[in-house]
Amino acid sequence: MEVEKLIIIGSGPAGYTAAVYAARAELSPLLFEGQPTGGQLMLTTEVENYPGFPMGIQGPELMDLFRKQAERFGTRMFAADVSAVDFSAMPFVVTSGGQTYRAEAVIVATGASAMWLGVPGEKEYQGRGVSACATCDGFFFKGKEIAVVGGGDSAMEEATFLTKFASKVTVIVRKDTLRASKIMQERATANPKISFIWNTDVKEVVGDGQRITGLTLWNNKTNEQSFFATEGLFLAIGHKPNTDLFKGQLDIDEKGYVRCQTGSTKTGVPGVFAAGDVADHVYRQAVTAAGTGCMAALDAERWLAHRA
Amino acid sequence: MSEIVLTTENFDREVLQSPVPVLVDFWATWCPPCKVMGPVVDALIEELQGARVGKLNVDDAPEIAQRYGILSIPTFITFKGGEPVKQASGAMAKENLLALIQPFIG
After folding, report:
1. Quick check: B94 and A35 CB within 8 A?
2. Cα–Cα distance list, A32 to A6, A65, A155, B102 (Å)
3. Model pTM score
4. Using the beta-carbon criterion (under 8 Å), do B32 and A35 form an inter-chain contact?
5. Nearest-angstrom CA–CA distance, A256 and A30
6. Of B30, B36, B73, the CB nearest to A38
7. B20 lies within 8 A of chain A by CB
8. So what's the pLDDT on residue A193?
9. Within an 8 Å CB–CB cutoff, is residue B56 touching chain A?
10. Catalytic residue check, B31
11. Taking an 8 Å Cβ-Cβ cutoff, which residues of chain A contact chain B?
């Protein structure tokens, strides 16, 4: 059976950038893009901080450009999920669509996904008032009173955006302060339609079987429980790395991120490299993901050359 | 099979009165995950036998979206015999999309 030089798993900025570098280095990489393809930027609208685009660019459009660039140098791409990996022996084994592929080196760039609260009623009312995408669903809450959970930049951005539709937006924050940047905080607190509930956790999503009607809230300072009537709940509580596939195969830290050697993309397994949000709980930017994608390709290239 | 572009006018005929199950994709141009799902839905249409797929732009047919209580897009609803029988929201893999309609075919 044929052994590939390099397999890349993931199709965000890290995966495609690794592919551009690896393909130009004639490693003829095989890229598993997953489904749907393109990573977190596919779920955003305007990206204003990716260098080289002074007027901003739409997230999906940017990812299309990344993909084209990877394709131009001969990356072979599969729009399929990887179902299993085996890094315990060489060559490494990657399984996708019931078929196995072998490679001398692997770059893990599976990124991160939006986090859910994990409380009763949340999954049941997903699409029935519970949403993780304000851009998509704000439209359906014209003139309604809704809630946003979270205290970071994305929560402030969602709350501010949702005031275009909703009559009132209540932000539910677990602590007594916001994690969001100054500019985002100011934008949200200055908005007359936005109010805040502090020191509060959502305990349950309540509905009538058809749609959400409210939330059970718990004040973590006073230990009081209360009912909060709302017609919509938007989640903006951060992201978690997509590392389930690698449990028992790679060194994963307590927050679920792949652990790499400092200043490198080398994981604990020689020949396996990690790039982008899957290994970065600090920066988590498209440009840093692209940067580490490049590092991973260079690290893989050196490692392969050294072995041969 | 080919896709059906659904409107307020043709929805009852193409979906509710369809002899085969119909998977309806509620979407809009301004919804990033709907765009992500575009090629996934098209790939499903290519291979689907014994059922059809309809695309309903919620901007063009808000009455229909409201009738089925759509609060999130993309939402996919399988209709059989004029009734919604299964639904899911958000971007997903083709296999999961197929699982929404497969049990109702035949």
Report:
1. yes
2. 11, 17, 31, 26
3. 0.81
4. no
5. 26
6. B36
7. no
8. 98
9. no
10. yes
11. 35-38, 42-45, 59-60, 79, 81, 126-133, 135-137, 139-141, 210-211, 232
What span, in angstroms and rounded, lies between the C-alpha atoms of A88 and A85? 9
CATH topology of domain B4-104: Glutaredoxin (3.40.30)
Q: Could you tell me the end-to-end alpha-carbon distance of chain A, in angstroms, rounded to an integer?
A: 19
pLDDT of residue A4: 97
| Burial group, residue A261, by CB count within 10 angstroms (0-12, 13-18, 19+) | exposed
Residue B1's pLDDT band, with cuts at 50, 70 and 90, is low
Q: Which CATH superfamily is domain A130-235 in?
A: FAD/NAD(P)-binding domain (3.50.50.60)
CATH of A3-113+240-307, one of 3.65.10.10, 3.50.50.60, 3.40.50.720, 1.25.40.10: 3.50.50.60
Helix (H, G, I), strand (E, B) or coil at A231: coil
Residues of A with catalytic annotation? 133, 136-137
Res A308 pLDDT > 70: no
- Mind giving me the DSSP string for A28-41? --EEE--SS-S-GG
In this predicted model, what pLDDT tens digit does every residue of A142-195 receive, in sequence order?
A: 999 999 999 998 899 999 999 999 999 999 999 999 999 999 999 999 999 999
The neighbouring-strand residues paired with A276 are none
Which segments of chain A belong to CATH 3.50.50.60? 3-113+240-307, 130-235
Instruction: Identify which of B32, B89, B91 has the shortest CB distance to residue A59.
Output: B32
Per-residue pLDDT of A276-300, as tens digits, reads: 999 999 898 999 999 999 999 999 9
